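stuck on this one:
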Amino acid sequence: MKILVTGGAGYIGSQVCKHLTAHGHDVIVYDNLSTGFRELARWGVFEYGDMLDEPRLRDCLRRHAPDGVIHFAALSQVGESVRNPGAYYRNNVGGAISLLSAMRAESVNLLVVSGTAAVYGQPDRMPITEDFPQSPLNPYGASKLFMERMLRDQAAAHGLNWVSLRYFNAAGSDPEGETGELHDPETHLIPRMFMAAAGQIPELELFGNDYPTPDGTCIRDYIHVEDLASAHRLALEYLAAGGESGAFNLGTGRGTSVKEALDAAARACGRQVPFRLAPRRPGDPAELVADPSKARAVLGWTPVHSDLDEIMRTAWAWFSRHRV
C-alpha cells in the first residue's frame, strides 16, 4: 500500500516508516519538524506540513493518493499537558479534526491512530482490557480519548475505517541502530536514566516512592518501539482486508517498576544511575499494565523485542552512538 504517516520524523513514527518500507509499502512522511527531526525522515517521501493546516493536508493527500493514513503527529507529554492543557486540545484534537476533514474530502478512509493507555486513568485492577472505563487523569489522555470519540462518530456518519492503538510505555530503539529517541528537551524516563549515567545531568529525578506498589515506585508496561511498528502495519493491513474498527491495547502484560527499570539500565550501560527522590507528578497513575490479548487474537500481533534487557540494550546503543 501507499501510506501517509503524520509525525513520521519522530521517535515512533520514524521506526514505523522504516518498518513499513521494509515490508514493501510506500511511505509519505508528513511532519512540521517541531518535535521531529529531518534526519529521521529518510524512509519515504518527505512533506513538510502542520496538522492544523487543512489545505496543506488536502493537497498532500490529493497529490499522493494514499491508501491509508497512520497518524502520530501530536503533543505527548503528560506533565506539559497539565501545565498547558490548551495547547494539547488545540494540537491533538484540532489536528485530528483537520486530518479527518481532509481525508473525507479526498476519499481516504483507512486510518490507524496513535492512542494511549492514558485514556484509562487509574483503573482499580490489572491488567487493563479495552472495555475498561476511560477516565483520563490528564489533558493528554483526555485529548486522545476525544480523538477516539471523533473516529467513532466519523465512522458512523461517513464510513471511516479506523484502529486506535493504545500503547502503554514505548521504549527501546531500532535494533539496527538507525533511529531512536531524540527529544529536545529530553523528558522520557529511559533516555534520562542514561543521561544521568553518562554525567549529562547530575541525577535522575525519581517522581514518587510512596505509590501503592511493591517498591513504592510507579509500575509501567514497557513495549519496544519495533513491536509497536509491527502493530501499526498489521492494523492497517487488517483494515484494508475489511477488519472491524476499534481500539487495541499494545503492551506485554508485564509490569516493571521504575526501580526495576533503573537496575536494567545499569546492566545495559555498565554503571550505576544516580537518582534523587522528587515529589509525585500530577496525573501519574500508580500502575498501568496491558492485557494485549485482543491485539494478539485479532491482529495476529506478538511482541518479540520487549524483554526489558533488550529494550535497555537497544536504547543504550542508540544513546551512546548519538547522544554521548
